[in-house]
Amino acid sequence: MQDIPNTPEHPKRPAQRVSGAVAIWCSDHLARYIFMAVAFSATVSLLLIALFILKEGVPFIVKIGFKDFLFASEWDPSAGKFGIYPMIISSLWVTLGAMLIGAPLGVAGAIFLTQFVPKSVMRIIKPMIELLAGIPSVLYGFIGVMVLAPFIRNHFGGPGLSLLAASIILGIMVLPTVISISIDTINAVPRTYLEGALALGATRWQSVHMVILKAARSGIIASIILAMGRAVGETMAVIMVAGNAVKIPHSALDSVRTLTANIALEMGYATGLHRQALFATGVVLFVVVMILNSLAMAAMKRKTGS
Description:
Layout: H1 14-64, H2 66-71, E1 75-76, E2 81-82, H3 85-115, H4 119-132, H5 137-156, H6 163-173, H7 175-187, H8 191-199, H9 204-215, H10 217-233, H11 236-241, H12 259-266, H13 272-305
Antiparallel strand pairs: 1-2
Helix pairs in contact: 1-13, 3-6, 3-7, 3-10, 4-7, 5-6, 7-10, 8-9, 10-13, 12-13
């Protein structure tokens, strides 16, 4: 059998090398400018939204008065009364109730999935949990109206559509956020931390509780704060299950109306001062959500720095 002689490849001509270098340079710079334009567009969009809300809402707050707007307890636009204090209290209680349900369950779920089940099981369960975040909020609200509200009404009394129902539904809705971020944070803790604690004679739970959770604390706190921002801004599910009564709740079984629900329910027909009052409510929500996001970012930076 005749051997095939090895023929060296022909070197590229100078013109080919130059054209290849130019193509690489153009593609790199084109991608850079495209990503820069996308980032700039997102930033400008956020600034324009913020400016529009502030432009529409701040003059109303100045006209009515900061104290009368935030701390007056009567909301009756037809009579010129625009106190959002009952809705602020309702929003705080609904959010607090949701976090009392979602935060412990979410953190416990993340610990269980990362420390007490095989990785093969976690690879299956984690995507399923993350899919919960993609379920439309109206479906959560529908389940709340058809299942949860009648259960509360039959077993605890009250109208069923209540602060308790809204808190439970929101607590379930924020679970994917808390679990996903907490899992990533716990997995970022070096494995040697756990192995060192076990080598010193600590039990599995002692190692997780005293070492892993302490090392992942900042990231877990950030996940809870981000989930809180989600709960504060949720609208559709809350409208469906909260009852939408403008009053200060005295019981978890009372019907309530949150700030987001108030905007969604009344913006369609609001005019004049009423419309400006809803934009002013949006200013309050915008400030609250920005504060929560800033706290979450600070917690994540602290985690990265440590």
